[in-house]
Amino acid sequence: MRKALVLLSIFVLVLILFTGCSTSKDVDSEGVLDTEKQDSEPVTISYFTFSPGDTYEKDLQEMIRVFEEQNPDIKIKYEMASYNDYFTSLQTQIAGNKAPDTFELNYENFVSYAAKGALLELDQLIKADSSFDPSSLNKKAYEAFRYDGKQYGMVESFSNVVLFYNKDLFDAKNLAYPSPEWTWEDELAVAQKLTEADQGVWGTYSPIQFWEFYKTIAQNGGSILSEDATKVTVNSPQNIETLQWMVDKINKYHVTPTDAEMSGQNNEDLFLAEKIAMLRTGIWMFGYFKDAPFEWDIAVEPGNTEKAHHFFANGLAVSKNTEHQEAAWKWISFMSASKEAAKIRVDAAWELPAVSDQELVDAYLQQSPPQSREVVFEALNSLIVPPVIEKESEMTDLIGVELDKVKLNQKTPAEALADIEKGLNALLK
Description:
By secondary structure, the chain is α/β, with parallel strands linked by helices. The protein folds into two domains: 161 residues, Periplasmic binding protein-like II (D-Maltodextrin-Binding Protein, domain 2, 3-Layer(aba) Sandwich); 209 residues, 3-Layer(aba) Sandwich (D-Maltodextrin-Binding Protein, domain 2), CATH 3.40.190. It is 46% helix and 14% strand. The protein has 19 helices and 13 strands. The N terminus is likely disordered.
């Protein structure tokens, strides 16, 4: 009997201890289960990006601070790489099953990653998130990150390329600023007046590379592929004429510096040093040029038979193999659609958020420099997106190599475009 009482006492004591331990964290003062009081470590989401660079890293950090403040159970660990190194690094990480939870993809590379099955389909997460409204984003930009009828990415920002010009250099020569009516020939005539090669000052600059090529041939009615991307159209008379025009500005008219004359300096730094009077570059350079020691502005690009402007979009994707789908979705949807992230981006002049919020657009237009910010939106009236195929990087590499050979006088435009045609047909098979 005594032994039984001892055993009963031990059992009651254990029961009390067990009950006390199980309720101390999960039950509130009224005895109701309170899961919010449970102790748990924050989830860490990795994020790989190329677009901030040194100029906008502080703005990315501010976005992360705001997000983590709103989501104390999630921490963001970011890594940056230059655009030239980014996709090689990303491919290596994915191939080694070490993909970041979330990462940045430009519009041109998005299709390749979606086609390879590397991205998480977002439709179920979108459907389950009552706080997200797709209509808060620009419809065209949002749908750009769909593949095979499914959403695999979220638009982060969009931007375009316009004609930057040094007003002081124009004023010194008493020349009229670029106007919307300008053609290639108008630009050349003014560039010749602005060029002082012996002083290292050049009238105009456009890079000879894939991204500039696909846009410039569109200004002359040309294209690389058919609209459905099934036929190669690159080897055409108007494209031969366009490529000849591009290299003639260097080799014939000498209003653009050669690579040797640039002495390893990039075109944006030469513009800041007042060595280039007119420069085609992206609106993402507004912040970089903000404190330039001269007056500058922007204009729509001159065309030949028609106008054409780049339309670039960056998006955010989630790795198919992430262990934290909901947390990853919260992060990329915040970066894409939140007013907080959009305001930070607009205030920093770091490209344009894709949110459909007129107040933010108005705030963007009120900033200066440049004075003519409305040109950014005027350029969208003649936007042209890059040609996209599954083997995107192979296409851009192929074309880039051939363009270099033309620039160095190793091939004629006709020879290079014929070889590009053969290479592209092989890639499309």
